[in-house]
Amino acid sequence: MVDWRRISRAAPAARLLRLLRRQAKPVLWLAAGLALGLVGSQVFRSPGASEPADGEYAVAARAIDGDTIELATGERVRYVGIDTPELYRRSGTAWVYHPEPYAEQAWTFNRLAVEGRTVRLEFDVERRDRYQRRLAYVYRDDRFINADLVAQGLADVMTIPPNTRHTALFRRLEREARDTRRGVWAERGAP
User: How far apart are the first and last CA of the chain?
Assistant: First the structure.
């Protein structure tokens, strides 16, 4: 904290600035710690602060690719109902960076949409996949991220029953993206 006793009324401006610069870092760290504490305790939430009946709020720490995020807890979440182009492919026992067309655009879109932000996870019938990732529809504020990826032509519809809650919406958005040749549909064209 700034020691105001050390600053007299007649203190020159340069002395005041030097003192504030020395004292600024601890204040910033304190503010950052308080902000993380609020997010971690879920005091700070998106509009509609109560927990949704079929979901929960979480902080998206990073985007793994276009359709997978990692939460601040370390858990991974796979977006339900969509599939984006892959950034990596398996080569023997290792994963090699080998992006499919539009994989980087999908990852960038996802990263800009959710990374470092509080998201709402909405669950369908199955809550985990065979890799133990959580399966969810992801919202940030009033934006439905799964649907946005499909609407931008950065994801295909991938329906795996019994998780079918938003299939009709996704198919309509995919048809519109294909008809207007957005994203992957610019190269693939209409079938």
Answer: 65
